[in-house]
Specification:
Layout (H helix, E strand, L loop, with lengths): L7 H9 L8 H6 L2 H20 L15 H14 L4 E5 L7 H17 L3 E5 L3 H7 L3 E5 L2 E6 L1 H5 L2 H8 L3 H6 L27
Parallel strand pairs: 1-2
Antiparallel strand pairs: 3-4
Amino acid sequence: RLFPSLTVTETLAIACDRAVAVPGAVEAVVGTPAQRRSERAVHETVDALLERFGLERYRDHAVAELSTGLRRVVDLAGIAAGRPSIVLLDEPSSGLAQAEVEAMGSLLRRLRHDLDLTIVLVEHDMPLAASLCDRLVAMDQGRVVAVGAPEEVLAHPEVVESYLGGSAAAINRSRPASAINPSAPAPAPDRSRPAGSPAG
């Protein structure tokens, strides 16, 4: 969960508390060596996350100042702080502009590789899903239509009819992307829109 009034650094520090051994309340008040080591570990982890997710220039920005796309990136950084082996994402592209969707896809592919993550993705953006998944499950009104490699599923007649309307051009546009730059920078913050508003 993101708190609009907190900065990006504060948000990630809270997330790191779950992964870094934190002494109890007495140690925190007294300032024991263990407490100081814990604080250093949190600061180092936050710095590493800011760098990995391209958030260094936003470290002192309040979450409320960030665009929807950047808030999603902060969310992912907080998830990564917990060092998970599997992540479930529910429509991460929802509300994002196309450029933000492409940046999100690049980031997720890099995270999957770097952190050896298993990603379970629920997504209606077919190009994004196909570019991320080794195994794709297509459903239509709760019914499984096709299961398999992205190329196979996207070519399935029922998938074409249900998702793509039978258009060959749409099918081609939905092929997995292979040349998206994995180091694409995070989208710039949008100060004109309050937190929670859809992008674009």
